[in-house]
Amino acid sequence: MSEVLVQQLLYGYSDGHRLLAASTDVPGPAARALLVQSDAQPGPDQSRTLSSFALPEAELWALTATWPADEMSRPGSVWSHMLLLDNATVSSLRGAAGLLGALHRPASMHDLDRYRQPLRITDEPLALGDASMRTAEAILLGLYGWPTRQIGVLNSDLQQPERILLAVWEQQWSTLRMVMTFATRARLSDSEGVQIQVAAARGRTSSSQAIVLDAEGPRPPHEPSWVVTLLGDLRHPGILREFFWRYGPGLTGGRADVASLTRIHTALTMEDAEPLTFAAVAETYPAPSQASMLKHDCLAFDGPAWLVDETVRLRAAIEFLDSVEWEQLEIAERLAALWEIDHASALSLVAQISRRGKPKRLIKSLQASLAPAADADTLRDLARIDARFAAAVAVKNQRALADPVLWSTPAEWQQPLLTA
Question: Does residue 164 or residue 186 have the better pLDDT?
Fold first, then answer.
């Protein structure tokens, strides 16, 4: 099992709340922000709380556990142990179990030396049991069902949500992880910049703009299918998160992309995928530059086996030409190759492009790709669907144009060929 190196910081009371020990130096603005973030309140009955904090300017992400420090002279003092991850570590980490296991409360002020060295963290995924699923469902529904809102989840036990929040974080792709902010608290509070709070009770000052879900209340009457799929991946980590990790970093929709990618993955992994299966991708990300890697992998000749048949892949590409970077897909060359092994399917696809009449560069490229191997039968079949298209192919292959077989039976489609 692999390991990653993580920096750590310890905050606590010593003539004021301050940084007591660290394995690394943090730049000034980031250091001030982390100091403020570390002075959090403990949970109900003086239990610990867990929070995350994003520092995009410094390309850092912090995970903090906070405990009451009743032994200190100042009432309300706390210990906060913080793990600091840079972008490379966040991107490479596959599991968060090691992070959760590395958070420790110091025994006293004499127990600070171990916080002055980086930690080696085991890269191990978190396992969630069935008992966690109701809370996990509320967290997923809130976080991704309202992707632009602050979310509050009520749950009397704050220990279980720690594992769930980190399991949700490890399921995400790197760019989403780097901005993910969460907190467990005794009460919901107004916390600007915290995407989701899990609290034991409502707070009197909790924002009216937040969406609040009760994990111990009645289940929602209609649970979205994407929530069920995400829950399955939390329980048994598998191909869905691998899909996220490959295609998520190229997207720009933030939390909204999670539900979208989940629905797309479900569509692509169904049996008997067909051209319309690709509609789930093209309609969600209509611009050619959006989800370009995913589109390429769906439609490329040597892409993953979602659309297993070359005819299906080409038909999907042609159906959604306005949504793909078609030049990179080498559609013209692949159609010419298909012509040799499945003439009827290739002819149907050529007719589809011809009827569109655009893009002109694709039509010209297709004519050039078909011309070298064209014979009289090829020109005759092309002329029957689009005589002008056939004439453009014939210009590039005079040998086929001169074949007597082409003229053996007079027909109307021959007229444009006479001027080729």
Answer: 164
DSSP assignment string, 303-316: S-TTS-SHHHHHHH
Residues in Cβ contact with 269 at an 8 Å cutoff, skipping those fewer than 6 apart: 239, 306
Is the CB of residue 162 less than 8 Å from the CB of residue 48? no
Contact criterion met (CB below 8 Å) for 71 and 65: no
| Nearest partner of 21 among 102, 85, 80, 107, judged by Cα | 80
**Other Cβ atoms closer than 10 A to 19:** 17
Is pLDDT at 116 greater than 90 in this prediction?
Answer: yes
Confidence bin at 89 (pLDDT 50/70/90): very high
Q: 3-state SS string over 227-263? A: HHHHHHHHHCCCHHHHHHHHHHHHCCCCCHHHHHHHH
Nearest of 359, 283, 375 to residue 326 by alpha carbon: 359
Mean pLDDT in the chain?
89
Please write the tens of the pLDDT for every residue from 142-152: 999 999 999 99
